[in-house]
Amino acid sequence: MSTQIEITYTFNAPRELVFKAFTESQHLRNWWGPKGWAFHVAKADFRPGGVFHYSQKPSDGDIMWVKFVYSEIVALEKIVYTSFFSDEEGNVVRAPFDANWPLETLNTMTFTEDKGKTTLTTIIVPVSPTEEENKTFYSSSEIVQNGFTGTFDQLAEYLKI
């Protein structure tokens, strides 16, 4: 059983532009998260050790808080961060949709450019999961893939502007 999820997506845009869309909150707020959800950036500090803390809310549901803590950033090439659901203060909480979702995931994004197009490879791995969390993560891989692909579709649309 593989405990990583890999998502590859190619944007019809140069790497510098795609990277900027991931690293500047004025861009992120226009495309990140599920389509049609309200999105609010509470904190955006893009540097190793920095935090991206935001909330998202479906029109028919409760607000969810998420926090990223960046561990490695290589300009135009790579972003590594841990991600977890949080409360409004940024404390780790269980995922609102599944109590067995891993408390924390490690996300590695690499950006490569070829002929003006950028391929983003995202690898998501649970951090110190229990056996049950690992099973939940593994069985949710299609949902995670679809979620990220939907979000990246929104970015592709945003980059056309």
UniProtKB/TrEMBL annotation:
Q: Which residues form the Activator of Hsp90 ATPase homologue 1/2-like C-terminal domain?
A: 12-160
A Pfam family hit: AHSA1
Under the heading InterPro entries, the entry gives:
ASHA1/2-like_C (IPR013538), START-like_dom_sf (IPR023393)
Q: What Gene3D superfamilies is this protein classified in?
A: 3.30.530.20
Its domain of life?
Bacteria
Q: Which SUPFAM superfamilies match?
A: Bet v1-like
- Family, similarity comment: Belongs to the AHA1 family.
Query: Know the name of this protein?
Result: SRPBCC domain-containing protein
